[in-house]
Write a structure and sequence with these properties.
Length: 65
Amino acid sequence: MQSIHHDGSYGKLKPFSQEEMLQELKNPDVSHVEVFEATEEQIKYRQKLFNSKTRYQKSPKNRRR
């Protein structure tokens, strides 16, 4: 399972347990928790998401008017 935060960042990969999932959802920064099948491809893909620094960005404002 992996938590997704409101700012678009991903949490660490954790093995699924119901108690941990409920604790993650109580955190006010967490938007939702994704549970997925733990295949090698999925784990590698999810680790790349966790390490990336891409988050939601505000659109640029037009300063000249």
